[in-house]
Each structure stands twice: as structure tokens, then as C-alpha cells.
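Subject: Stage 0 sporulation protein A homolog

B.,
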Amino acid sequence: MAGEHILVVDDEKNIRLMMQECLEQAGYQVDSAVDGEHALEKIAARGYDLVLLDLRLPGMSGMEVLRQARGRRPDQPVVMITAHGTIETAVEAMKLGAVDYLQKPFTPDEIQAIVARVLSRRRLPVDEPAASFATCVEQAKLLIQRGQPREALPFLHRAVSLEPEHPEPYNLMGAIHELLGEPDHARKMYRAALAIDPSYRPALTNLHRITQWDYHPETPELGEAGAPPPATDGEGTGEGPGGAE
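Prediction pasted inline below.
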């Protein structure tokens, strides 16, 4: 973590200072910008390990900053900061290349957690499946975000072999099939996740969306990595985990 450099872009001074302080306390180097123009100047001058970018900025919008930043530095990781009620826009931002989003209001712990998670993905090797469940899942997410969803499948199969009673790999396999234009396979995997944990929110969200009559493909919910395995004493509502491919 030492030396990793983060840019915080937010026009609200109290939020900007709070984010800068909590990240510096965690050991990061932090720059800040109050608007899109200044953010792009800083990004052009030097690449950052991560940019935290508010969706709503004066003048140039956060979406436009994202487009231009990714145009100048295609490998620049960006996490969007979004207010309540703008999740759909945050999903659109992820289609443009944002690696994640953080919804207001948030705590310093939540900021540190998402930054650590995103930066850890960049450090992961992607040559072969790892030994731990959490690392396999993070490797798969990294490949999905890099536009290599098929290459992520072996990592998820390994994750299933390590923790077969965890819903997250099945949800991620569903997301991959959805991204590959295979909605039937995607539904099968989302139902497999829900057979393990009927309350698993990412799979519930994805299955609800993909079964709508006016369904249009969009960025699936990937969920959080590293969560403890769920309780399995509830009844499932779909196909079991044997449906994993």
C-alpha cells in the first residue's frame, strides 16, 4: 500500500477533506480536485493508482470526466461517488470503465474498504487460480472488469470447489453469461446462487432484472468479495448449485 497515490474529486469541501484525511490515515498519498477540469489536469500530469470521482460536479459532469480520463489513460481505475437515487447512472459509469461505485452517505471505514478492495484487485496475479476462495473471486472480478469474462470462469470453478456453499461464485458466473449474451445460462446461475442463499441480494437483483419482460442487458451486480459463507438452513427457490458450468 505504501506510496499508492489517490485522487479525490468532489466539490463539497467537507466530504473532500474527510475522504482525504481518512485515506491519509490509512497510509495513502492523496491529491484532491474540486471540479472536472482540475481533475483532468492532474490525471494528465500523472496517472493515479485510483481516482475517487463524484458523479455530480459543477461544470463538467463526473460522467464526462470519466470519459475523458479513460480516453487519455485507458488503464486509469476510477470509483464513482454517487448520491442516493442515482444508482442507474453509476451503472452506466461502470459500462464506461469505472471499476466500482460508492454511494453517499458513507463512512471513513467504507471509503478505506472500497479503496483497499479495488487496489488489491490490481495487485492480483491472473495467471492461474489461487489457493484461497477470496483471492479466486477477486481475480475473477478483475478479469471481468478487464473485459475478459471467459477467462474468469476457471477462477470461479476453483472458488466453488473451495467453498461450494457460498453463493458469490454462482452469481459471478451468471454475470459472465449475461455479459456474453447468454441470458438463459445467466438465469440458471443466479438461481443456483439463490438456492444456496435465498436472501443473497446481488443474485436477487440480477435475476429480477433479467426476468423482466422489457429486459435489456446491462452491467450485472457483482456483489462483495470476502463475505463469510451464508447459512444454508433456508429453502432455495431455484436450481441447485449443481447447475454450475
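The chain has two domains: 5-123, 133-243.

T.
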